Amino acid sequence: MVRHRHDDKANNLLADKVYRERMDERDYQSLKAYNSIYAEILLRYKDYIEEKEELHLADLPKLITPEDESVELLAMQIKGGFPVYKHEDNFQDAARIAYQHVSEKILDISVPIQFWLRPAQTIRYGAGDIFDKAVLLCSVLIALGNVSSRVVVVAREDERHFVVYSEFGNRIIGIDLGKGVKEYGSFEEMMKEINAVNSEDVTAYEFNDKMYRDVL
Predict the structure, then answer these.
(1) 50 lies in some domain
(2) Residue 204 sits in the same domain as residue 113
(3) Which pLDDT value is given to residue 55?
(4) Domain range holding 26?
(5) What is the pairing mode between strands 107-108 and 127-128?
(6) Are residues 78 and 158 in the same domain?
(7) 176: DSSP letter
């Protein structure tokens, strides 16, 4: 029986596909084992790491970094989507784009220890928890020219709710990382919607790169 060259080529392509699939599976298993070992190390030294990573609430402004190079680059990319970016005309649309970027481009992850990521790290890794994403979004909004932008944290027992908001004209642009962008007539209206009310089991605070204050 005569074997044709196209049969040899087809067989080689099939063998190559099988080899690559096996390598992909091997790579996946290696990565899975690698991550499991890292998780074991992190958990073993959890207390030590969290002690070194401890950040007092009054130090939270240090995490907002609008002048960081990677944050400024992201803000410039957003501004570049407008013919001529003007804060007074385009910020509201730019804020929606920034929210969309953080929601879609930054993966939600949660590590088993308390560990702070700064905006540059969140951008670099393309991942972070909801707090990291809020800090990044606030940094970008300030870099877009709205220095009033702040992160609001409402905490009750083991639950925390995050909203990033900006004063814009006579309105409040609130960005709930789980629900999206919404306009409010006042700060009080926004806080009422997120159920931030005076109660013994509820605390709330806000911060940006320049300030920190208790809200409740």
Answers:
(1) no
(2) yes
(3) 74
(4) 1-44
(5) parallel
(6) yes
(7) E
